[in-house]
UniProtKB/TrEMBL annotation:
Location of the Aminotransferase class I/classII large domain: 32-357
Protein name per the record: Histidinol-phosphate aminotransferase
Known partners and oligomeric status: Homodimer.
Metabolic or biological pathway: Amino-acid biosynthesis; L-histidine biosynthesis; L-histidine from 5-phospho-alpha-D-ribose 1-diphosphate: step 7/9
Amino acid sequence: MKFNEALKEIKIYEAGKPIELVVREFGIKPENVVKLASNENPKGCSKKVSEAIASNAHKAFLYPDDSMFELKDALASKFSVTSDNIIIGAGSDQVLEFVSRALLMPNDSVLMSQVTFAMYEIYAKQMGAKIVRTPSYEHKVDEFIEAYNEHKPKIVYLCTPNNPTGDATIREDVLKIIEAIDKETLVVVDGAYMEYAAAKDEAYALSPKDLMAYSNVIYLGTFSKAYGLGGMRVGYGIANSPLISELYKMRPPFNITTLSLVAAIEACKDETFVEESIALHTQEISRYEDFARENGFSYIESYTNFITYLFNGNINSTTVSDKLLEEGVIIRNLASYKMNAVRITIGTKEQNDRLFEVMRKVLDE
Ligand SMILES: *Cc1c(COP(=O)(O)O)cnc(C)c1O
């Protein structure tokens, strides 16, 4: 069979290891597995959301409202935009896929930072596009403008805060990059962790509204992180309506489930849950910073719900991740990003206690 040539260039996305795998491979009881690998919300989701899912379970036989009127309406008022500025995806991942399919032709190029969200590359390569990366993992204005001028990419990805590094780009710099790019190029501002950055430092906060002045920019958000709904697969793109209309041509009908829709609508009504999640996070992340200092390695200042530990030569990220896994603690090794680093989702106090305990043991060995 002859597959699409473009597939040769694609490495399959490596998802965070599931709890089930640790149970199977190491015989650890599921309740003793600590999963800090996929940036899920350690508080779970809002109780109002899980109750709404349960009380609507009998609607599983119904297709969802394909207009997604109520969800778009809730997002429109939350962000002071209109419903025709919004497209809903099965995770913001699916919106990334729409964007890629709507714009890219073979041999086009796309621009992103050196270390960033892996799906940008995968969706672009599916279309036969070439990947251009800036030298740094941080989004540096000069590096982006230089690479943009040299390669004239069809899409520029700005991931702020950035995954898997956790750093963020100050709003002023994001706008400087956008201003330097002409309207033929789409700029994707991926704000999957924006709630955390905005709470930490106002200077890093970007809202979709800030970007509506640019016809060639789309803002992406998700319910998977701060709202704790990774399992429901709901994300969104917000942009000027002509751009959204083009993306709609890529959308399959009923692209999120009836219960996902219920969950996301309910989540929009409970901002207190997000505030509480961020408060817990803020408290716990400082323990991770202390832990790094105590153990003599560094970390990247985080604007997300995870922290990236940078190891020097005497600690190996693969060894650390493998040994933690044997103890039932799942974290993300960044060796595949050519970094001697690990990414750890900030958990509950108890989960973090367990991580520190096991990691101390591993580092002593
Ligand atoms: C998690 C994440 C997403 C999308 O997650 P979905 O679950 O598909 O909404 C997008 N971008 C980044 C940088 C992420 O970390």
